[in-house]
Design goal:
- The strands form two sheets. A two-stranded antiparallel ribbon has the order 1-2.
- β1 and β2 form a beta hairpin.
- It is built from three helices and four strands; from the N terminus they run ααββββα.
- About 30% of the residues lie in helices and about 10% in strands.
- The longest helix is centred in the N-terminal third of the chain and has 18 residues.
- It is of the alpha+beta class and about 100 residues long.
- It is globular and about 30 Å long.
- The termini are far apart.
């Protein structure tokens, strides 16, 4: 009998490998271009090596411009503070940032 793995949030939303690649690309952009404003709260989002400067001192989350529950896709993502992203749920962001 074959065993099936439970689906994680990442596999329901797209390839885990693809998600890791998108997040790595966002981290590289934050490292090269500098911190960007969080679309949820407006405070700077710092790359992983400077996560202690984030308000929640956690690595950033890669959030969706439009949440998947509202028709968004993994092609439109942006860095957000982990706390902001997870507390927002499936809501629209307060502000818009430059396109990634």
């Amino acid at each position: 009998m074959a065993h099936s793995r439970p689906a994680s949030a990442l596999t329901r939303h797209g390839s885990t490998r693809t998600w890791r690649r998108l997040r790595t690309e966002a981290n590289t952009r934050l490292t090269l271009d500098g911190p960007q404003p969080c679309p949820r709260c407006g405070q700077p989002v710092h790359p992983d090596h400077n996560r202690h400067l984030n308000p929640d001192q956690r690595p950033f989350d890669l959030g969706h411009e439009t949440d998947r529950q509202h028709g968004g896709t993994d092609t439109h993502t942006r860095p957000e503070h982990a706390t902001c992203n997870r507390s927002a749920g499936a809501t629209a962001p307060k502000t818009q940032t430059r396109p990634w």
